[in-house]
Amino acid sequence: MELVVDVQERGTARFDEGKMLRVINNLARNAAEAMEPRGGKLVIKVTRDKHEPTLVVSFSDTGPGIPKQIEHRLFQSFVTSGKKGGTGLGLAIVKKAVELHGGEITLKSAVGSGTRFTVTLPLQPVNQPVGVA
User: Fold this and answer.
1) 19, 101 contact by CB (below 8 A)
2) Per residue in 101-130, pLDDT tens?
3) Selection from 32, 94, 87 nearest residue 57 by Cα
4) Structure pTM?
5) Torsion (CA) 124, 125, 126, 132 in degrees, nearest 10
């Protein structure tokens, strides 16, 4: 598998480090597992929205894509597709962590053409804590 990390934004942002590491880990691991066994390319790109004070992190893979019939349920607990093992909780956890930060996660996928998850997070002033329990 080829991994490309494209960091176009190098500013400062305040987030719950543990929760955001879990988001990154879950999305990257899901992409890697989706591309097994033939491999592929995962691009993690970090940018800043030019019109809103938000950080945008996208995870794009060249895997088989997500079947349309489960796309609308993908962020619910215990939903999984085409993987051996796993609990189906990873994306539910990701969605909850992103929402606790006031952000959103979206997905764009086409069977046979890969998947892109986009996490959009509001940038908080350095002296203002994120409302995360």
Assistant:
1) yes
2) 999 999 999 888 899 999 999 986 434 445
3) 94
4) 0.83
5) -40
